[in-house]
């Protein structure tokens, strides 16, 4: 009996360069060696091991798609494939890397001063310093333009007041990129963790992304020097461009969660004997596996196409919305279906699909909900902004 891996069904590897395949395989080995043996325990305990950050730095995945300052400067496709393998381990792991590289580091790399870049980026690329991205607020998630956090000038300084919610890495970060309303519009500020008036709280009792640290940021008369402001960031477009970077990683990462779920389930189905034969030999099971493999393949091809567009400098925000909407939706459906094939065993942490499904319930919401991405696509098609 010949068994074909779901990722090989459409020979997707043939569309990758040797370097891209090597990067994917290197990250996959890291996940196998450093993540899979422990991730169920992390998920159950509701923690993310901060000591993993330097190891991820040595691996070269933190800010890997950025140029200079200790960053690897890889292609967008290579970064996407790394996200795929990281999320095959757990969405929390990919979220850590995405927030570090595509939100916190990217905001400094794209909009910071040279002094800010030199101060933070090399340490963040090495995993010696952790960053977070403070945009979402308790009352303003999908509508960041109406954020309540304010920054007011006081001589040469800025005084910040407000709060941010659902911030990945928030309570373990060494520096936060915080977005605030000013008299000149929305601006970004770098807030070191030990700044007086700046406090964080870890959000507990989560049912999703448990192997990830989620926090709340509070700013109470936080005084920052003028040099703390990101000089190149003016207006809402700046933080939204950072979100586009992170969403791109999700397009690939969600494929990884689906792939791991499907691989796990095929292995189980070939070994689970019922009525004298493996359940993989029954038509209903094969029908489910075939449908999921087709959906996985189309999602992977979509991710690769968007990655090629990004490397060519032609990727548009609405195309990222297509990728996130489709691929996360498909991944969640695959993880749920896989859990069903696993039966009672599927509700335990011994098998990954339900853990992936729980995580994807967050992924489908953060970095723009499915509803918002649907309306972004609708606006592109019709010219009408239905969410305003």
From TrEMBL:
A Pfam family that the UniProt record links to this protein: Acyl-CoA_dh_M
Matching InterPro entries: Acyl-CoA_Oxase/DH_mid-dom (IPR006091), Acyl-CoA_Oxase/DH_mid-dom_sf (IPR046373), AcylCo_DH-like_C (IPR036250), AcylCo_DH/oxidase_C (IPR009075), AcylCoA_DH/ox_N (IPR013786), AcylCoA_DH/ox_N_sf (IPR037069), AcylCoA_DH/oxidase_NM_dom_sf (IPR009100), Glutaryl-CoA_DH_mitochondrial (IPR052033)
Cofactor(s) required, per the database record: FAD
Sorted UniProt keywords: FAD, Flavoprotein, Oxidoreductase, Transit peptide
The enzyme's E.C. designation: 1.3.8.6
Annotated GO MF terms: fatty-acyl-CoA binding; flavin adenine dinucleotide binding; glutaryl-CoA dehydrogenase activity
Residues of the Acyl-CoA dehydrogenase/oxidase C-terminal domain: 235-381
Domain Acyl-CoA dehydrogenase/oxidase N-terminal: 17-128
Keyword presence, Oxidoreductase: yes
Residue ranges of domain Acyl-CoA oxidase/dehydrogenase middle in the record: 132-222
Biological process terms in GO annotation: fatty acid beta-oxidation using acyl-CoA dehydrogenase; fatty-acyl-CoA biosynthetic process
Similarity-based family: Belongs to the acyl-CoA dehydrogenase family.
Protein name as catalogued: Glutaryl-CoA dehydrogenase
Organism the protein comes from: Actinoplanes campanulatus
């Amino acid at each position: 009996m010949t068994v074909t891996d779901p990722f090989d069904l459409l020979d997707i590897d043939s569309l990758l360069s040797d370097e891209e395949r090597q990067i994917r395989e290197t990250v996959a080995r890291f996940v196998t060696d450093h993540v899979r043996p422990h991730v169920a325990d992390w998920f159950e305990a509701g923690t993310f091991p901060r000591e993993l950050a330097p190891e991820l730095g040595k691996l070269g995945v933190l800010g890997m798609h950025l140029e200079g300052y200790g960053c690897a400067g890889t292609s967008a496709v290579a970064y996407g494939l790394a996200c795929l393998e990281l999320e095959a381990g757990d969405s929390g792991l990919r979220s850590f890397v995405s927030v570090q590289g595509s939100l916190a580091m990217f905001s400094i790399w794209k909009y910071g001063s040279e002094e800010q870049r030199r101060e933070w980026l090399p340490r963040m690329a090495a995993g010696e310093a952790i960053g977070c991205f403070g945009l979402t607020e308790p009352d303003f998630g999908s509508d960041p333009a109406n954020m309540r956090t304010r920054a007011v000038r006081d001589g040469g300084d800025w005084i910040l007041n407000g709060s941010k919610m659902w911030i990945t890495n928030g309570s373990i970060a060494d520096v936060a990129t915080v977005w605030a309303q000013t008299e000149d519009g929305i601006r970004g500020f770098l807030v070191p963790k030990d700044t007086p008036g700046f406090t964080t709280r870890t959000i507990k009792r989560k049912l999703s992304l448990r192997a990830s640290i989620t926090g709340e940021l509070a700013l109470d008369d936080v005084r920052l020097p003028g040099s703390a402001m990101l000089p190149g960031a003016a207006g809402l477009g700046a933080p939204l461009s950072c979100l586009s970077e992170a969403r791109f990683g999700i397009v690939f990462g969600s494929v990884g969660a689906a792939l791991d779920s499907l691989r796990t389930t095929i292995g189980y189905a070939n070994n689970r004997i019922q009525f004298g034969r493996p359940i993989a030999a029954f038509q209903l099971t094969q029908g489910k596996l075939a449908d999921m493999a087709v959906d996985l393949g189309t999602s992977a091809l979509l991710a690769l196409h968007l990655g090629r567009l990004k490397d060519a400098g032609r990727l548009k925000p609405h195309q990222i919305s297509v990728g996130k909407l489709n691929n996360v939706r498909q991944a969640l459906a695959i993880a749920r279906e896989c859990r069903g094939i696993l039966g009672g065993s599927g509700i335990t942490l011994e098998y990954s699909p339900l853990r992936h499904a729980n995580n994807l319930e967050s992924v489908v919401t953060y970095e723009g909900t499915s509803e918002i991405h649907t309306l972004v696509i609708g606006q592109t098609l019709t010219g009408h902004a239905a969410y305003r």
